[in-house]
Amino acid sequence: MRYSPERKESVLRKMMPPHNRSIKQLAQEEGISEATLFNWRKQAREKGLLLPDGDSGPEGWSARDKFVAVLEAAAFNETDLAEYCRKKGIYPEQLSQWRKACERANDWDRENSRRLKTEKKADRQRIRQLERELRRKEKALAETAVLLVLQKKAQAIWGDPEDE
Predict the structure, then answer these.
(1) CB burial class (10 A; 0-12, 13-18, 19+) of residue 126?
(2) What digits encode the pLDDT tens for the residues 57-79?
């Protein structure tokens, strides 16, 4: 069944904040199949619209929806931000947390590189320490081997001191 663009737009607005109606609820109210509504939401998201899952509230928004909200609100002053948050049904603190999460996510490679560099340095120090310990033990082993050989030669030359 074909739906008019106006009807589609109207239903999509009901999915958007502050209404945040679930697809199941809209399907019952509007008499439109859930599959059709999921498809409409998917198409609207691909166009860049903020359409979070209505069942979950702002805590359950997808990372993409949170990112879109952060982008939309980036240039707002305090008054505009408060109005935007009211319209979307979120708190400014949530938006601030999402922004920080986006910043951390974009900085992961530098953080990862720094962590790897620190681990590499610690590994090199550990390897040097183990190599020093190995050389010391090899010297001690070689010294013990020489002493055993000399002891056997002395026994061969002078005999076993315990036999006398």
Answers:
(1) exposed
(2) 566 677 877 888 888 888 899 89
Burial class for 81, CB neighbours closer than 10 Å (0-12, 13-18, 19+): middle
Would residue 126 count as lying in a domain? no
**What token pair was written down for 18?**
């502050």
CA 96 to chain centre: 18
Q: How many domains does the chain have?
A: 1
- 23, part of any domain: yes
Q: Check residue 119 and give its pLDDT.
A: 95
Q: Establish if 154 belongs to a structural domain.
A: no
In this prediction, residue 51 carries a pLDDT of 64
pLDDT, tens digit, 9 for 90 and up, residues 120-146: 999 999 999 999 999 999 999 999 999
Integer Cα distance of 121 and 97 in angstroms: 33
**Domain, as residue range, for 33:** 5-106
Q: Is 21 helix (H, G, I), strand (E, B) or coil?
A: coil
Neighbours of 90 (CB within 10 A): 22
Give Cα 73 distance to the centre of its chain. 23
Closest CA to 16 of 80, 68, 74, 75: 68
